[in-house]
Amino acid sequence: MILEIVTPDEKIYSGEVKLVQVPGADGSFEVLKNHAPIISTLGKGKVKVVEEDDKEIFFEIDKGVIEVNKNKIILLAEKVL
């Protein structure tokens, strides 16, 4: 899957990932390969990214929106803390 994390000012991350865990507005959830298409609002919290080599990366975001479609994930964050 391809993940892009973007703020209004810059692209924070772009790469191939196995898993993304996000702070959904109604609770955290994970996105894996072949996830159904979804658009969801995000709350303030941690985003966990597991890359293809199992390396884990964490980002702290302040609200945003995630769109998942055809193994491409776009996470629009108001800001990354």
Brief summary:
The protein has 81 residues and is mainly beta. The chain has strands at 2-6, 11-24, 27-32, 38-42, 45-51, 56-61, 64-69, 72-77. Strand 2 and strand 3 (27-32) form a beta hairpin.
Description:
This protein is an all-beta fold. The protein has strands at 2-6, 11-24, 27-32, 38-42, 45-51, 56-61, 64-69, 72-77. Strands 1, 2, 3, 4, 5, 6, 7 and 8 form an eight-stranded mixed β-sheet that branches. A hairpin with a 4-residue loop joins strand 5 (45-51) and strand 6.
Question: Main traits of this protein?
Answer:
single chain, ATP Synthase, domain 1, 81 residues, mainly beta
* Number of helical stretches of at least 4 residues: 0
Low-confidence stretches: none
Please state roughly what percent of the residues sit in beta strands, choosing from under 5%, 5-15%, 15-25%, 25-35%, 35-45% or over 45%: over 45%
Overall mean pLDDT? 96
Number of E strands:
8
Largest sheet: 8 strands, mixed
**Any idea of the CATH topology?**
ATP Synthase, domain 1
Q: What's the CATH class label? A: Mainly Beta
List the helices and strands and how they pair.
Blueprint: E1 2-6, E2 11-24, E3 27-32, E4 38-42, E5 45-51, E6 56-61, E7 64-69, E8 72-77
Parallel strand pairs: 1-8
Antiparallel strand pairs: 1-2, 2-3, 2-5, 4-7, 5-6, 7-8
